[in-house]
Amino acid sequence: MNACPYNAVTMVSGLPVFGDACNLCGSCVEACPSGAIERPGADAGSLVDASAYRGIWVFGEIRDGSPARVVLELLGAGRRLADQTGQSLGAVLAGDRLGALPQELIAYGADRVFVAEHSALAAFRDEPYAAVLAAAVKQYRPSILLFGATATGRSMAPRLAARLRTGLTADCTALDIDPDSGNLLQTRPAFGGNIMATIMCPSHRPQMATVRPGVLKAAPKNDSRRGEVVRLEVGPELLKARTEVLGFTAEDEETVNLEDASIIVSGGRGLGSAENFSLVRELAALLGGVVGASRAAVEEGWIPYAHQVGQTGKTVSPRLYVACGISGAVQHVAGMQGADIIVAINKNPDAPIFKVATYGMVGDVVQILKQLIEQVKGG
Amino acid sequence: MNIVTCIKQVPDTSEVKIDRETNTLIREGVPSIINPFDLNAIEEGLLLRERFGGSVTVISMGPPQVETALREALSLGVDRAVLLCDRAFAGSDTLATSYTLAVGIKKIDFDLILCGKQAIDGDTAQVGPEIAEWLDIPHLTYVSHLNEVSPAAITVSRLLEGGYEQASASLPALLTVVKELNEPRLPSYRASLRAKIQPVTVWGAADLDLDAGRIGIQGSPTKVTRSFVPELERQGQFLAGSPEEQAKALIAALQSARIIHGCS
Ligand SMILES: Cc1cc2nc3c(=O)[nH]c(=O)nc-3n(C[C@H](O)[C@H](O)[C@H](O)COP(=O)(O)OP(=O)(O)OC[C@H]3O[C@@H](n4cnc5c(N)ncnc54)[C@H](O)[C@@H]3O)c2cc1C
Ligand SMILES: Nc1ncnc2c1ncn2[C@@H]1O[C@H](COP(=O)(O)O)[C@@H](O)[C@H]1O
């Protein structure tokens, strides 16, 4: 009964009764001392012949002409899983004039790079990219297909999963292989980071997941690695698209690429004013980092929404996150708990942010920021 | 312009607490709300109706208590509310949910479907693009502004990493929307009174032209095998002393972690 994360199970005369809150998550199956609980459909017969699918594939998202950082992380994780299970690691690249990119992915660990080159693929669009990937999956039958949980990955992967009639797990923070079944174990946060769930896709292939950037370890580069480049056929039937990309406006103030930043200095309501918030910008600039914010700071109008970190903002995982005058509400922490080092500056020693902090600084945020700025400048 | 808005009832995750003894979610007293992004989707539907005429229908798949969320949407001024509700839908993952919603939406006349960017209970952001695929219509995600709307096409801005993309789609299409899109209105008094007596259409599996293998747990490829409470707390330390001493200690620590470069 206590095993249920949703409190949906009550015991009536020694037998479990399931309430409406039950979402069939299965936590109780393992916990039941008498083995009396069975999840409906949990052992529904295999819908595909899983053994016909082999290989681990990574989608090679390109950003400004280079692989997105998360692609290198996916290749790192993919290499580990491939070696563990004796499979090969593939990467799929789509675009126009890809030049040395296939070779670059081989240097980062891919055994085979599947390349779809066409002028109509120059800018990312969901429909043709999903069509190209669907055709490649049907032809080569990979067992696992991984995407970065970027705007691109999270937009296209669900479209592709529906087309392939398979499962997709969003925004994973850990990937492993189940030793018993050989299935991919996909672990991700849910309920605003309040609980973690491990998800499998036992009877459909490929097993698809988007993976949060900045969490897995990037593969090392080895320019002498060799691999195979496989050209994919890009017929006109794959290029049907009902959307167009018309342009891109970079956020002018400074680039707000929080997802890829390795240093983030973030400000909250505790700063008290727009003027004090500029200290956050100054420290971020001095450290070569990017500015983040809590929702309260965005609501005060001190900084645009694009900088908001948290459940309804961006999820970040920098090496350093400095939280200035942020209380540490669960929705904020959900977006930044993946940081390697968290520094919290708050006048209230009981603020929840200190629970996730590596270094806690109790005091007035303005004074402490001024000191930090002065000393970084001086150093 | 006829608009369908997909809304999900979710527990207010800011109220969700963990019972540290049993490692379970404390659900008692946790209010159910309309997923915050879906409020932006409803608002945009209402704004479009004000400009172009037509109707706004909200649709949700879920247990009977979701009717409260649909009545709340009616009190904001939407024309019609549809609940897809059947025991057979229980245990749906995003693939089965999107399939069921798509089959329901097919019975409704639409030019544009609006979804939230993601639902705050699962944070998957998958149901929208999956519905678009089932219905074979284009989709655009992370929409932060509607730039131009005509009966045949729509031009939008999308909030991506590092900036905004301008993109267009032919109609019918599906959009998923972010907070920045608009400021949701509050219920109006008149609409609230009307919402109490307006009917909510309820469709069960038998009312829909469904493939039984694609709904509920049968139609859900993903299985949750384990859920657990993450250990959030770190082995942290407080830095001692005056602001100046604390700053000095922090910079030394960051230098030795090679996060910032020192002169030493
Ligand atoms: C559905 C939902 C989604 C949400 N999504 C997000 C999200 O994505 N991101 C997000 O950030 N929030 C989100 N929130 C809001 C969240 O619950 C908090 O309200 C918000 O994070 C608080 O911001 P804050 O820490 O800046 O402000 P506060 O909670 O007001 O904290 C200010 C802190 O500053 C400290 N302080 C005050 N003065 C000083 C001083 N002079 N020196 C030092 N410290 C000082 C105070 O002790 C306090 O701890 C969401 C809420 C809901 C309901
Ligand atoms: N059960 C549901 N009923 C109606 N709409 C839903 C449901 N689940 C998800 N949605 C829609 O899909 C969006 C994304 O949800 P999710 O993929 O669960 O993060 C939500 O903001 C809703 O617009």
Give an overview in words.
The complex is a heterodimer of chains A (379) and B (264). In chain A, 26% of the residues lie in helices and 26% in strands. By secondary structure, chain A is of the alpha/beta class. Chain A has three domains: 41 residues, Alpha-Beta Plaits (2-Layer Sandwich); 189 residues, Rossmann fold (3-Layer(aba) Sandwich); 116 residues, 3-Layer(aba) Sandwich (Rossmann fold). In chain A, strands 9-13-8-3-6-7-14 form a seven-stranded parallel sheet, with helices on both faces. A five-stranded parallel sheet of chain A has the order 17-16-18-19-20. Chain B is of the alpha/beta class and 264 residues long. Chain B has two domains: 213 residues, 3-Layer(aba) Sandwich (Rossmann fold); 31 residues, no CATH class. Chain B is 27% helix and 30% strand. Chain B is built from six helices and 15 strands. In chain B, β6, α2 and β7 form a beta-alpha-beta unit. The longest helix of chain B is centred in the first third of the chain and has 17 residues. Chain B starts with a strand and ends in an 8-residue tail after the last helix. The model of chain B has no long low-confidence stretch (mean pLDDT 92). The chains are: A alpha/beta (379), B alpha/beta (264). β15 of chain A pairs antiparallel with β11 of chain B. Adenosine monophosphate (AMP) binds next to α1, β6, α3, β8 and α4 of chain B.
How do you describe this structure in short?
Helices cover 26% and strands 26% of the residues of chain A. Chain A has 9 helices and 20 strands.
Write the layout of secondary structure elements.
The complex is a heterodimer of chains A (379) and B (264).
Chain A: E1 9-12, E2 15-18, H1 27-31, E3 56-59, E4 62-63, E5 66-67, H2 69-85, E6 89-95, H3 101-107, E7 112-117, H4 126-140, E8 144-148, H5 151-164, E9 168-172, E10 174-177, E11 184-190, E12 195-200, E13 207-211, E14 228-231, E15 243-250, E16 263-267, H6 274-287, E17 290-293, H7 295-299, E18 320-324, H8 330-336, E19 341-346, E20 359-362, H9 365-378
Parallel strand pairs in A: 3-6, 3-8, 6-7, 7-14, 8-13, 9-13, 16-17, 16-18, 18-19, 19-20
Antiparallel strand pairs in A: 1-2, 4-5, 10-11, 11-12
Helix pairs in contact in A: 4-5, 6-9
Chain B: E1 2-6, E2 9-11, E3 17-19, E4 24-26, E5 32-34, H1 36-52, E6 55-61, H2 67-76, E7 80-84, H3 94-106, E8 112-116, H4 127-135, E9 139-149, E10 153-160, E11 163-170, E12 173-177, H5 189-197, E13 201-203, E14 223-228, E15 237-239, H6 243-256
Parallel strand pairs in B: 1-6, 1-8, 6-7, 7-13, 8-12, 9-12
Antiparallel strand pairs in B: 2-5, 3-4, 9-10, 10-11
The complex binds flavin-adenine dinucleotide (FAD) and adenosine monophosphate (AMP).
Flavin-adenine dinucleotide sits between chains A (268-270, 294-297, 308-313, 325-327, 329, 331-332, 335, 346-348, 351, 364-365) and B (14, 36, 120).
